[in-house]
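hey m, so remember when u said the tokens were messed up on ur end? i reran from scratch. heres the input so u can diff it against urs
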Amino acid sequence: MTFEHGLTGNKKNMLLGAAGLMLASAIVTSLWMTNHNYVALFGSQENVPVKQVVDVLGNQTIDYRIDPASGIIMVDSSKLAKARMALAEQGVTAIMPGGYELMDKDELLGSSQFIQNVRYKRSIEGELAQSIMGLDPVEAARVHLGLMESSSFVLTNQPESSASVMVRLRAGQHLNDQQVASIVQLVAGSVPGLNAGQVRVVDQTGNLLSEGIETDNGQMAGISKVRDISQQIKSETEKNIANLLNSIVGQGNFRTSVVPQVDFSAIEETQERFAGDPRISDESINQENATDELAMGIPGSLSNRAPAATPAQPPATAAATPATPATSNPQALSSRSQTQRKYAYDRDVRHIKHPIYKLEKMSIAVVLNQSAPALEKWTPEQFTALNKLIEDAAGVDKQRGDSLTLDRLVFTPAGSLDIPSMKWWQDPDIRDWGQMGGIGFLALLLLLLGVRPLARRFTPNSQQQVANLQDENSGVLLEGETSSDDESLVQALPKSSFQVEDNLPPQSSGLETKVEFLQTLAQGETERVAEVLKQWINSNERNSAAATASKQD
């Protein structure tokens, strides 16, 4: 007896379908549980010593995984508390730079001012490092401050404070110029008296990220910034030319080359100009006149004495004589005059700060496809007009020294790329299908070697015995029976699950052998034999009634 003969077709299909569904559900559930039961041991912003964590988890026999995308250590959710307790017991915690909590420590008796300054400096460095680590691309950061203390004895040429920032970026992440400038301004704004130009930012590979960042005076330096500005001028010029030529000659029928020459010299100048004739801005005139007699002659001589008094004359005589003025002597007068004038010119003072870059010259070359359909019937006048359009679109300035070259050439079609072929077992699609086929083959083996014997074991034995007896009775024919009667009886009988005729006696055996077999069959299954006899009697009665009716007709 086989398992297929123990079940009907519908039951077999239902059993196979249920087994396949259970197997698929088990595989999907196993994969889902494997991928979703693991949670992060620490947060993404926490810097933990991976080697120490792995050693502790290995000693505690705790399964773990490392996320290939972020590098985060993941453990089973049911063992998360155990893993954290084991790490805390071994003293393995996330490494975070200390901030202002360093100032909360009790001061030792006799601590110097130097110790306090160092602790204050470390606290500022830790706070800045924590703030910088808040950026998504930054995994860890360290800040070094070079603070210069003010001195009352040094008034000029004092050294400036400076700062350096070391960042370790996450895998596949980078900092753009805006983020680097934010770090620079963050550090400069957190330390009093620190200039943004004195802040340097370096990544873990030694690249100076703050090289092309604008300083407080607006100047820029660095090769990367020069390259970016040149590339921007080039791309904008090529875009303007392409927008013009796409609608005229068609896309792909032209090639453009732009070479800008940019001067990145930072220039500041002050001009003072004097215009017109000088004008009097200030005038001062001083003049002194003296009427006193001047002392003249030899001191002590008789000539310096006053003359003797003369006798009084008659009034008539005195009146007739004219009076001589006392000031008639020119030696008795003195005068001094002083004039001072200041002249000034009209002055114009200009303080000029030139841009951070200057476009000195631009060379443009444009090549058109000679075999383009739109250019087949063009005249020289049309090409001259097109040259003028390109000059205006590109902003060509002849006075500046810009040049534009326009020509027609035959384009060579690009050759096909020789892509190296890979082996069939290296094809990712074939690998995926192979994995799926392997899983299906394993599922089929599990179904045939596991589910099928299990279902066969649970098949009832009584049903097998009834089927065996039914197989033995299926090939026996009694004398006087017709084939039509046998077919009708077989159709009227309950269907048996056994169709094998191996236990029946051969057809050439005698009547006694068949009768003995029927007696044995009747003893083993009395009810079924009685049902067979009942069907025979009913069949004989129907046949007799049909024969009588035919004779009467």
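this time it looks ok to me. The chain has five domains: 1-36+427-455, 37-95, 100-105+112-148+160-216, 222-276+346-412, 461-552. if urs says something different then somethings off w ur setup not the seq
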